[in-house]
Amino acid sequence: MHASVEQPHGEQDVQPLLVVRDLQAYYRTSHAGVRRAIRAVDGVSFAVRRGEIYGLAGESSSGKTTLIKSIAGAIKPPLEIVGGSMEFAFLPGYGGLHRAPPAQVERIRWRHLSYIMQGSMNVLNPVRRIRCSFTDFAYPHIGGSRQQFEQQVVAHLSRVRLDPSVLSAFPHELSGGMRQRAALALATICRPGFIIADEPTTALDVVVQKEVLGMIRGIQRETGSSVLFVTHDMGVHAHITDRLAIMYAGRLVEEAATAEIFRNPLHPYTQNLIASLPRIGEDAPRAGLGGAPPNLADPPSGCRFHPRCPLAREICSREVPVMREAGAGHRVACFAVNGDDGA
Amino acid sequence: MVVFLRDLLRYRAEFRIGLVLVAVVLLLSVLASFSPYPPDSVYVVPPDLPPSLTYWFGTTSRGQDVFWQLSFAIRNTLLFGGTVALVSRLVALAVGLVSGYKGGWIDRALMSVNDTFIVIPLLPVLVLFYFVMRDRISWLMLALIMACFGWAYDARLIRSVVMSLRQREFTQTSLFSGMSTRQVLTDEHLPYVVPILFSTTMNNMVWSIGLEVTLAVLGFTDINIPTIGGMIYWANQHTAMVAGIWWWIAFPTIAVIMAFIGLFLLAVSVNAHIDPRSRLWNVGEAS
Amino acid sequence: MNDLLLDVRDVSKTFVRGGLFSREEIVAVNKVSLQLAAGRPEILAIIGESGSGKTTLARMILNMVTPTSGRLLLDGTDLAAISGSAGRIAFMHKVQPIFQNPFESFNPLKRVERYLLMTRRRFAAAAGGSTAATAVDAALHKVGLSLKEVGGRYPHELSGGQLQRVAIARALLAEPKLIVADEPVSMIDASLRISIVNLFRTLRDELGISIIYITHDLATAYYISDRILIMQKGSVVESGDARAVLTAPRHPCTRQLREAALLPQIAGGGANASGTTQVI
User: Fold this and answer.
1) Cis (ω within 30 of 0) for the bond into A78?
2) Which terminus in chain C has less CB density within 10 A, N or C?
3) pLDDT by residue (tens digit) across A282-338?
4) pLDDT tens-digit profile of B221-278?
5) Within 13 Å and on the Cβ side, how many CA atoms surround C27?
6) Is C277 within the bounds of a domain?
7) DSSP at B188
8) A258–C219 C-beta distance less than 8 A
């Protein structure tokens, strides 16, 4: 089923930067004698190509946060990787950051893989000046003299339109937008091949959000990095991502070029999601989806969307649909679209 | 409540150990009611006998059975600690809830009183009381004085919790559901304060018993009522350690240490168990 | 009797930050006036970025914050003159809030129906006839739930969308004339959001409740509101018919917001140019 993702496309480098295969990440807990497994990510496969912004959209209980944690190697109990692999091109042979030796991971972080989070305070140490954060994270990877490094940082900050004076500021002295831009500069100064962006603009005001998104796009183009961009905001996805995957209840349901998803959504969940978004200038009433996202400790059998699905049929509650090619670069996991032989 | 205790017993080893220790100490104190000798009479048994089958914990130089004396002493000491804890908890709860919820000038007034009590050094004050009152100082009065000094820090703790609860949206939902201030405090906020109340009760008892022992050993209390400190005081008066009557000091010390450790373990385990954060362990947020 | 349901006249709110030596005054709301007519229910959207004063304005209308200057009249009653529990109950009988975070709107340690029953008992005593349980069930039915679904449940057992519906049902039990909803859908999942937004329209049309809808999201504001108020740094910079303001914004601030709003549609070219070339 990865053939569709890895097929050559145009002049681009064909080797994907990250290949996630059939990943299963569960939260296993034992509380007051009751054992539970929350199947937050249950069989997810996708690939992020070089130089693209790959979007991941999903609701609050879709498992996208768990997926990000797994890819970033931030796996702490009760979270466990139960199956599958996550292979980075720059870290071959381990099947995920969590399996690589810590020294190896240390070398890769910031140099090849970096993060932009929703709360940039997590990256920027609140009691140290911004300059210290840059020296701590980036200097070991860049090396050279201190002056050269400082020049490089200043030059890089100008790309996100920050004045060199922010280097002497503490994170709390900056506005939310400036902080997020500083975090962006920090994440990109080593020109990493892969950037994980987890809701990087969700906490920002709309005007600042657009500006920061523009900068992410600009730097990504310049450095040729791949970005895994996670947000629940479809507007942001439409604005910045190249390809988009829709996640529902721990599984991917659809993946295609972003424009294709918005123009021609195939999965009933995606269709409803796109159709329910209000747009300025359109007055037609929009219908929401009934029901609620499932509880991942006890998900519905078969296709996890079937209790809410208008196209549900008998097979949907019995078998799990697999992602199938439904058009050029367009994969979807739905029996109604792929036909009953989908399994 | 039954389920709650069963869970505690089943899943928390600290709770089991603490419970056993406290139960032993409590059993000892309950036995005081069955003592063959009144607590204040002396020379009822032969003096200075080491522990034996007749006198389990030996006898004192004053002709008292250490076992029965200890059972009176631990009962009085626990009663003292309990009284201090109860009275000071009530004050801390009232001040903390009102101050944290009402805010404004009420908060400022209460907190200035509160801070005054925090900064006054307690031991000199108690010694001063003793020198002024001398023999008229009863254990109840001492308990009340200590309760006066035991609430202030915890009231601040409760106040800070209530202040943060007040900012949360559910407090507004409660108010817009037509609840009165009293209802919001007792029904909505109190469940968050109870864990604090629990753990501070145990801590407060440990604190007040420790202080009472200190005062009694120094002779600054009514030495005719047997307490743990009182027993050690009399043992010192009779130079028990020098004379080799080690059981006169050892058993009260062991009893009070058991009570301390037992109360501490109960406080820690109960607190961990009823912490709302651990009770709110749930599925929905683990995405 | 009174032709204005809500009359906000030149209200300002100044917060003082700092201690004895460094006092800093922050004007959160600066001379804002707005009116809602009685007997003609409407949805008024108040739009602004964070720090624009929209939440402070909402809290003043809910009488949770006292204005530094200006007056607020609700159905002819001055909010500053409300005192005592009877006055408070009478006020809450007319205005009810919906909050942003549905998971925080209910005490996590209590069952949710407690708030519904409490509201019913306090406010709708005069309604008579039905028992509290049937009234609660009826209110839940108006928001697409039932007592069977939420009865005996704790907040963490319900989804954000369900909780927000329960919050709306609770507000309805007080039979208010005005609901002040502060970012009511910003924390609701995308697939449930539009249903909640549609619910507000139903409340207006079928129950005759006016709604003040506070948001930063222009698209939903355009979708449901009749009138719109754009705030910036504590002041109202533009107001008027929602469609007119958002399709042809006049104030630079509104224009900036309008342009920055990321709309869920592919514009063709622009930021996605590389995306499309890459995929083909």
Assistant:
1) yes
2) N
3) 888 888 887 778 888 888 999 999 998 888 888 899 899 989 898 888 999 999 888
4) 777 788 888 888 888 888 888 888 888 888 999 999 999 999 888 888 877 776 655 5
5) 11
6) no
7) I
8) no
In a domain, A173, yes or no: yes
Is residue B45 one of the residues assigned to a domain?
Answer: no
B 228-247 residues with CB below 8 A of C? none
For residue A161, what are the domain limits?
120-191
CATH of the domain at B154: 1.10.3720.10
Q: Would an 8 Å CB–CB cutoff place A294 in contact with chain B? A: no
Alpha-carbon distance of C36 to C44, in angstroms, equals 8
Q: Residue type at A84?
A: G
Complex prediction ipTM? 0.85
Say whether pLDDT at A2 is over 50.
Answer: no
Spell out which chain C residues touch chain A, with contact meaning CB-CB distance below 8 angstroms: 49-50, 159-162, 189-198, 216, 218-220, 222-223, 243, 246-247, 256-266, 271-272, 274-280
Q: What amino acid is encoded at A314 in this protein? A: E
> Residue A267 corresponds to which tokens in the numbers above?
């999965």
The verdict on a CB contact (< 8 Å) between A296 and B7 is no
Q: How far apart are CA C63 and CA B175, in angstroms?
A: 12
Q: Report d(CA C280, CA A287) in Å as an integer.
A: 33
Distance (Å) of CA A16 to CA A21, A116, A218 = 13, 21, 21
For A218-265, the pLDDT digits (tens) are 999 988 899 999 998 888 999 999 999 999 999 999 999 999 999 999
- Tokens representing B42 are 């002396």
Identify the domain containing residue B240 by its residue range: 61-268
B280: tokens are 């709110």
The whole-angstrom separation of Cα B237 and Cα B250 is: 15
